[in-house]
Amino acid sequence: xxxxxxxxxxxxxxxxxxxxxxxxxxxxxxxxxxxxxxxxxxxxxxxxxxxxxxxxxxxxxxxxxxxxxxxxxxxxxxxxxxxxxxxxxxxxxxxxxxxxxxxxxxxxxxxxxxxxxxxxxxxxxxxxxxxxxxxxxxxxxxxxxxxxxxxx
Length: 152
What we know:
Blueprint: E1 4-10, E2 20-22, E3 25-27, H1 31-42, E4 55-64, H2 87-98, E5 110-120, E6 124-131
Parallel strand pairs: 4-5
Antiparallel strand pairs: 1-6, 2-3, 4-6
Helix pairs in contact: 1-2
């Protein structure tokens, strides 16, 4: 059976921002925000092991509505959000927050992303990680670092 887990981060979704520069050096302007997001994710885990192998990330970003009512041009609760921030930047920030031993060692194991952004009165990020089969015929992924017989 393939492992699948759902996670919820309450609060306004955060979009990735370009690195800052100072004296010819680059630095991460969102280091503290990523750590805070990572901590919010980690507190929901318990003793779950880190994810390995190919993963499917299914994510919905619920962005806040102005005054909790109608917004810009009549957009309403649960309607598609077509304003900034960009969907790819929201995904990048979330993925960066999950890596570095929060949910997995390296974000390169995410092989598929399904993403959506919606208006909502209750801003949050909901995402599900699901182990994938690596072949189209359904053959499961086998971690080459583990022994086929005992799993060690």
